[in-house]
Amino acid sequence: SSGINAEWPLRPGTQITRTHYAPPPFEILEGETSEGTVVVLVPRVMPRPQATSRDNPQGSSHGANTTTPQPKSNKRKREESFTLKVMSWNVDGLSQSGISLRFCAVVSNIINLCPHVVFLQEVVSDHKSYLEESLGRNYKICWGQASSSYFNVVLVEKDADFDYHSCNVIPFPITSMGRHLIHVTCQRGQRVFHFLTSHLESMKEHALERQYQIKKVFKRMAHQDPYDVVIFGGDTNLRESDHVLKPDTITDAWCAGGCDPANQYTWDTTINKNLSVTFNSRMRFDRIYYRYIYK
Predict the structure, then answer these.
(1) 90-122 as b/e, with b when 16 or more CB fall inside 10 Å?
(2) DSSP secondary-structure letter at 21?
(3) Parallel, antiparallel, or unpaired for β 117-123 and 86-90?
(4) Which of 128, 129, 153, 159 is 20 to 30 A distant from 121 in Cα terms?
(5) Quick one: pLDDT at residue 274?
(6) Max CA-CA distance within the chain?
(7) What does residue 246 show for φ and ψ, rounded to 5 degrees?
(8) Does pTM top 0.90 for this prediction?
(9) Is residue 174 within 8 Å of residue 209, measured between CB atoms?
(10) Is 181 exposed, middle or buried (0-12, 13-18, 19+ CB in 10 A)?
(11) Tens digit of pLDDT for each residue in 33-52?
(12) Residues noted as catalytic
């Protein structure tokens, strides 16, 4: 048997057999117990700091990585200089190849990079308890269609001064793959934020349904209050042959960043061999869009 074990310290009697790389300050240990093989994400440094330089962009006489919370009187100042950090990741939970190690690595990257908002796709039910135990203290976790065999998840950091409002799950009516859209609404100060994620219809032959789905996403983004912040991130499965008219008010983040070819492909089988495919494919499936923000 195998699985993800979120317990720390390790249960007595665990024999460590392998150590795997994870971004500092973590490591992934693989061990044997009387119940079988376990994979454990181990923090090298505990506990996680409650405040970082991101919370204090103007600097501090005590250095950038101070753990001293900011006074409430500075809250408005932090809002004005606020930089939002967003992550989107299809975790490929349907593939059982190395799933325990891969999902531990996903969680360690989230903890290490400290994004304010995380969009996950292809999460499976076996991951729910591990996400809650590993990230539930620091993130509000919003689940998609958890009754499906796989689903999307949105995580919103609790320390980012977001007031959570709602989470709506919108199924796509004619999907053949159980695809859906999550729309999470929060507020920070006077500004309302909308965070959306989806995993659009896969494979080339489902282009029409995929194009219908991204149009529904753009429509929902465009219809929010013009002074709200609206961000979509997810696995779009979009190809160059998928001709979708994007509203002028919605921006592709990769294009806005200069279209760097080094960061163009998010599905690149020439360098990522996780699925052991024999063909070469380079696609920009994973994308982040944001709507024009009125100051």
Answers:
(1) bbbbeeeeebbbbbbbbbbbbbeebbbbbbbbb
(2) -
(3) parallel
(4) 159
(5) 75
(6) 60
(7) -85, 135
(8) no
(9) yes
(10) buried
(11) 665 555 656 544 334 344 44
(12) 235
